[in-house]
Amino acid sequence: MTEGPPTIFSPARREARIVRARSLQQAPKAADWLAQSLIEDMLDRIDFMRLEPRRALAVGIGAERLGASLEVQGARVVVTDPLALNHEQPWPTGDFDLIASLGTLATVNDLPGALIHLRNALRPGGIAMASMIGAGSFPRLRTAMFAADGERPAARLHPTVDAQAGAALLQRAGFSQQVSDSWTLHLRYGSLDALVADLRAQGLNSALTDTAPPLTRDGLGRAHAVFLDGADKDGKVIETVEVLTLTGWRN
């Protein structure tokens, strides 16, 4: 019997964090830097490639805003709620000449399978672009969590994909051409709590199947201290978010 992919992420936890993020987004000045950055980058890529999609599908963080921009350019756009789309099952009808996935593929258990479903939803000659949190993300947060746990680190942050692995995944999924590249966001924070609040507000908190044990008071103190190590004169540090973008063409 062929075994399926390991269950690293919990679909229930993934859905719960989306629901909570939507609620938190109603607060004044809620963090929205990821959606804004993904939308701007996706539109820049579409413009650079001189794409003029007739029928497009947009799903994920900021999909409604991206869809509205594409409609202004003359495309017929289907905006799909990520809660209504099982990424590990076949996607809607395969007649899209552009599919834009914004931050939705980083927490699927069968990423190769999800990319195959995405490719199959394209019409011949269609292009898929998928952006997700990449391997170089949150180095300061990772260091802080290791310091908090000491000699027995728990799994608190998601495993991620780098650009080299992304290209191999696109090829494995059957795309005729593959481009995998990454870019970075640099964010300033004055506390670990502020970063964690921003992650929750954007649905970037843990969706792991295995729940890590709560941090002890001493561990949390170590995490706060390590996170702010080397802070500037304003008491802030730079945290890095790497965004991996996979672009694939279907024959």
From TrEMBL:
Keywords: Methyltransferase, Transferase
InterPro entries assigned: Malonyl-ACP_OMT, SAM-dependent_MTases_sf
Superkingdom of this protein's organism: Bacteria
Coiled-coil portions: none
Keyword Transferase: yes
Gene Ontology BP, a term: methylation
Any one GO molecular-function label of the UniProt entry: methyltransferase activity
Family matches, as Pfam families: Methyltransf_23
PANTHER family, alphabetized: ARGININE-HYDROXYLASE NDUFAF5, MITOCHONDRIAL
Protein's recorded name: Methyltransferase domain-containing protein
